[in-house]
Amino acid sequence: MNHSQEPVVPSDTIARIFQLCSFTQDSTRITEDTITLTEKYIKLFVREAVLRSLENKDKVKKEDGKGSLIEGPVLHHTDLEEISGILLLDF
């Protein structure tokens, strides 16, 4: 995937998450600027999670001395779980 075709979280999804999880009153509204800023934050968070997971995976692989049979980086949910605690503290 090219950097120009990076996936994004749809604005409707972000607004719905706010509505369902954050707002306690039905009359609460969210501005388009807030949705745009949140979209950028989510994009940064996901990118950082992937990069840290790849870095941690390489570090563990070097410490174990095991090579990978698969060419290229492949992440599993366990790779994300290993870095999730410190990632959440940083954000």
TrEMBL record:
Keywords for the protein's UniProt record, in alphabetical order: DNA damage, DNA repair, DNA-binding, Nucleus
Pfam family membership, one: CENP-X
Domain of life from the UniProt record: Eukaryota
Primary localization: nucleus
UniProt record, GO biological process: DNA repair; kinetochore assembly; replication fork processing; resolution of meiotic recombination intermediates
Cellular component terms (Gene Ontology): FANCM-MHF complex
Protein family per UniProt: Belongs to the CENP-X/MHF2 family.
Protein localization: Nucleus
Organism for this UniProt entry: Eremothecium cymbalariae (strain CBS 270.75 / DBVPG 7215 / KCTC 17166 / NRRL Y-17582)
Cited PANTHER family: CENTROMERE PROTEIN X
GO molecular function: DNA binding; protein heterodimerization activity
Protein name per UniProt: Centromere protein X
InterPro entries: CENP-X (IPR018552), Histone-fold (IPR009072)
